[in-house]
Amino acid sequence: MIGLKPYDAKQPQECKICGYRLSHNKQGRFTTHLKEKHGLTLENYLINYYYNQEDLKCSYILCDKYVGLHRGKPKKYCSKSCASRGIPLVCAICGAYFDTTTRPNRSTKTCSDKCAKILKSRKIAEWHQSMSIEEKEKHFKKIITKTAKTRRKNHTPSWNSGKTGIYSHETIEKIRVATLKQFEAQKFRKTKIERVIEDYLQEMNLEYKYSFLLEKKQYDFLLTNYNIIIECDGDYWHANPKFYPEPEDWQKARIKIDQEKNEIAQKNGYRIVRFWEDDILNHFDYVKSIINDLLATTESETIDVKA
User: Fold this and answer.
1) 271 and 298 in contact (C-beta within 8 Å)?
2) Low-confidence ranges of the chain (pLDDT < 70)
3) Which of 73, 77, 106, 134 could covalently link to 6 via disulfide, CB atoms 3.0 to 4.6 Å apart?
4) How confident is the model at residue 179, as a pLDDT?
5) Are residue 191 and residue 290 in the same domain, yes or no?
6) Looking at the structure, do residues 248 and 202 belong to the same domain, yes or no?
7) Pair 24, 80 in one domain
């Protein structure tokens, strides 16, 4: 919005540099004055001395460039591109404006990948809350049934199914030996949330051991100089109450195992902290603050770790 009245050559002219006055600029006398006395064109004078910066800002809300003049008056847009962009989109999470220059799909409802993850998390939570217990049971039973049917068809049982009668004893022994070698070599395929935690531990230059064994129980990360164990719990497998307020029987069994692992860790002098998948992916600042608080309140020491 223009703060000053738009320039009009028919109106009285007063030079804002030297105070020279004329009744009008219809014959270009004022323009000649600017050129001869100050070495300026009329457009340069208007841009630098007549209009404020706000008067010359492009009208497209996401553009920070300045416009040129047309017959002494500021143009509305700095380019044809800004003029053709239309109304910017508003992020459904943070309320920021954005357009297709940063998010190519105009049906996108968020301004960034971070906001997109938060929106997805909220939609999942709303979806779970909207379903009755019966609907949830029916939905997951359908998924499990379909998966089991596919595995039977392809003769590929799940990794933790009984292998007797499906694989030979020789094959089962090979699987067992390969698993032991994997533990010895510390070569594991990490989950997405484990990789996020590991990246932060490396960023903090913390010494850690991945897939730490204690009393035949496996833990995700051990901070070797702090006696701190970090567990990364998937929302589905460990029954995050935010999404699964009434866990299935198999989820209850998983919860019981987690409780046993907590007791074993504490009994052996370790501090253990668990983070939900939802928090790691969507609220990582909270996760980092917990880790930092634990480090600040735990004395660093050198520990002889025995797997």
Assistant:
1) yes
2) 1-4, 106, 155-168, 172, 175-188, 299-307
3) 73
4) 63
5) yes
6) yes
7) yes
What is the model's pTM?
0.43
Structural domains in the chain (count): 4
Range of the domain at 140: 135-184
pLDDT for the residue 306: 34
Whole-angstrom distance, CA of residue 76 vs CA of residue 68: 9
Phi, psi of 56 (to 5 degrees): -105, 5
In a domain? residue 6: no
Measured distance between the N- and C-terminal CA atoms of the chain, rounded to whole angstroms: 70
Residue 304 lies in a domain: no
Please check whether residue 39 lies inside any domain of the structure: yes
| Pair 192, 257 in one domain | yes
Question: Quick one: three-class SS letters along the chain?
Answer: CCCCCCCCCCCCEECCCCCCEECCCCCCHHHHHHHHHHCCCHHHHHHHHHCCCHHHECCCCCCCCECCEECCEECCCCCHHHHCCCCCEECCCCCCEECCCCCCCCCCCCCCHHHHHHHHHHHHHHHHHHCCHHHHHHHHHHHHHHHHHHHHHHCCCCCCCCCECCECHHHHHHHHHHHHHHHHHCCCCCCHHHHHHHHHHHHCCCCEEEEEEECCEEEEEEECCCCEEEEEECCCCCCCCCCCCCCCHHHHHHHHHHHHHHHHHHHCCCEEEEEEHHHHHHCHHHHHHHHHHHHHCCCCCCCCCCC
The answer on 203 and 291 residing in a single domain is yes
Torsion angle of C-alpha atoms 83, 85, 91, 94, degrees rounded to 10: -30
Q: How many CA atoms lie within 13 A of 6 on its CB side?
A: 10
pLDDT at 150: 78
pLDDT of residue 86: 81
Instruction: Please give the distance of CA 5 from its chain centroid, rounded to a whole number.
Output: 46
Closest CA to 140 of 258, 251, 277, 254: 251
Cβ pair 254, 262 in contact under 8 A:
no
CA–CA separation, 195 and 129 (whole Å): 29
- Domain containing residue 229: CATH number: 3.40.960.10
